[in-house]
Hints:
alpha+beta, nine-stranded antiparallel β-sheet, 9 helices, 9 strands, globular, disordered N terminus
Amino acid sequence: MNRGPDVNGLRWIADAYNISFTLTLSEGLSSYELLRRVGAEEHHIVPLNRSAAYELLLRDEEDHISDLDFLDWEDETAVAQLTSAGFLPAPPETIVRAGSVAGWAYALEESHCRTGTYLAALSERGRAFCVHRNAKGFSRVDYACRGDAVTSFEPGLPHLTNGTPAEVALGFVHAGDEPGDVAFLRFLEGELAINLRWEETEAELPAAAFT
């Protein structure tokens, strides 16, 4: 895709994270509150851009840290911070990076879906959504409100819904040839009026490692 300064909204996420992704939105929380609610400790949250997080996820434990492009391996303070926070020496299972936009906290994961497990807790101040696409191309949407799980569904496959049907809970009906996760991201753009800029998600965001 032509990713540049005009790439915003939400639909672009399914393209930029074309193999697998998880996007979680939590109403009324800050980015740090979101990370704490999914199990991060405050002193283990560090700023990472997407590229750095991706490097950490893909490395082998046997690789020397000098292979990490973003890190000055002779900076003992930086290395110690990443090590104590669980980013080194072994690669974490997932890294959750979080930010905030227009009254919502958002979180992005490259492949896993840790945040989805905590969606009810992430909805205590309002609504929370989790959109996940796995590496096989299957997508799932979870929605919670005021501490309660409301629905979990695969767009376009209503018979696989757990909870309230999507059209009842959210007014969402998947129609047309567009992939289900893209259609739902488009729907959220209109419903929530969230404009999430690509550049912001590529830059440094508070991040936590989980194993």
